[in-house]
Amino acid sequence: MVISVDGSKRKEAARERREQRRREVTLLWALPYEPHQRWLDRLAPRAVAVVTGANRGIGIEAARQLAYHGLHVVLASRDAAKGQEAAGRILAEAPDEASVSVESWQLDVADAASVQAFAAWAVETHGGIHVLVNNAGVNFNKGADNSVEFAEQVLKTNYCGTKRMIDAMIPLMKHSPYGARIVNVSSRLGRADGRRNRIGIASLRDQLLNDDRLSEQLIDEMITKFLEQVKQGTWSSNEWPKIYTDYSISKLAVNVYTRLMARRLSDRPEGQKIYINCFCPGWVKTAMTGWEGNISAEEGADTGVWLALLPQEPPTNGKFFAERCEISF
């Protein structure tokens, strides 16, 4: 393949912009939150955070960082033994001066009974939670692959599991003057109007980007239509995202559902506010990417932790972020 000089320059410029932003975020990351910004320090007992899919990758890093900030973190994992091991690692690797509080619990977000059992345990044990990080997800594509063989499982876990957790945890969100937080781990691959991976059905794309027309029914109908086409072998990359199609659609659903839920939650009274946002961690070196990413899990988790700890004023709600910057849907 021949790459033009202009194309090479554009790629180099884009690479430099990414590196510059990474340097900026690294500096921000190193700065401590000011005392007046740390709403979590004004709660007694400790604020409680739940991180799903927390036994590895971005999940364990988000759990670690939240625990080091002083929250009590529940590492929720489908594999109970791996969750316990991950919690043990966080405790063992904590700085001597850190007062770290973590525990693990078994949870399969794709199983309604498992989610309900987890919710009952969270109420009984902690009386509710303050922060939910929806990280659990699957992707069966690697490298140049774009198989939709496991599309139903991908959507069941990534979107339906996320929605199920939100529905189950909202009644458990503890009331406070600072608001509870929901952070959904998503992807730029799920942007409806992304430059490379956009939805090709113009009418659907327009509806997904229009808050007045966006609905849960619209999202569910999109998923049903895609899965039917997969089953029939008639799906087309001209209509659906070209890269990691099933994964991208699952994250598109998460993105637009985040906006929808922000609108639904916006009229809650003071003291009962819930702020919900989503973020793209980037291409992270984890098992999900086959360790082919270009940033560490520690870097990838940063924006999600930042969103979870943002001060309540001014409110940030229904937004999409990457590298601590708001990006388009």
Automatic annotation (TrEMBL):
Tell whether Iron is among the UniProt keywords: no
Q: Which GO terms describe its cellular component?
A: membrane
Q: What's the domain of life for this entry?
A: Eukaryota
Gene3D superfamilies xrefs: NAD(P)-binding Rossmann-like Domain
What GO molecular function annotation could you give as one example from this UniProt entry?
oxidoreductase activity
- Provide this UniProt record's keywords sorted from A to Z: NADP, Oxidoreductase
The record's comment on protein family reads: Belongs to the short-chain dehydrogenases/reductases (SDR) family.
Instruction: Give the protein's recorded name.
Output: (+)-neomenthol dehydrogenase
Q: Which organism is it from?
A: Miscanthus lutarioriparius
